[in-house]
Amino acid sequence: MCGFFQVIQRTGPVSRDKFRAALNSMQHRGPDAQGEDFAEYQTSQGVQYNIAFGHQRLSILDLSDSANQPFKHAQNTLLYNGEIYNFNQLGEELKAQGVTLNTHGDTEVLMHALIRDGSEALASFNGMWAFSLFDAKSNRVMLSRDRYGKKPLFVYQDKDVFCASSSIRAIKTYLGMKLEFRRESLLDLMLFGTLYPSASQQTHFEQISQILPGHVAYFDCEQWRLQQTPFFDPARPQQGGEREQSASLIEALADSVAARLVSDRPVGLLLSGGIDSSLLLSIMVSKGLQEQVKIFMGDTGRSEDYSYAKKSVEQLGLEAETVRLDYNDVAFERFLKVCWHHEKPFPLNGNAMAMPQMYQEVESHGVPVVLDGSGGDELFGGYWERHMPFAMREALKKRDWRWIKLMLANNGKSNQVRRQFINAFFPAALINGKQSFSDHLAKQIHPLITANAAEIWSAANPDPLVSVSDDFSAALSSDVAPGGRLGEWIWHNDRNSMMSSVESRSPLLDHRLHRFLFSGYASKYQGKWNKFELRQAFDRFRPLPTQWRRQKQGFRWNGKHFILNNKDRIIDLIAGSDSLSELINTERLVKLAVKHPKILRSSLAKNALCVAGIEHSLIRE
Question: Model pTM?
Answer without folding.
Answer: 0.96
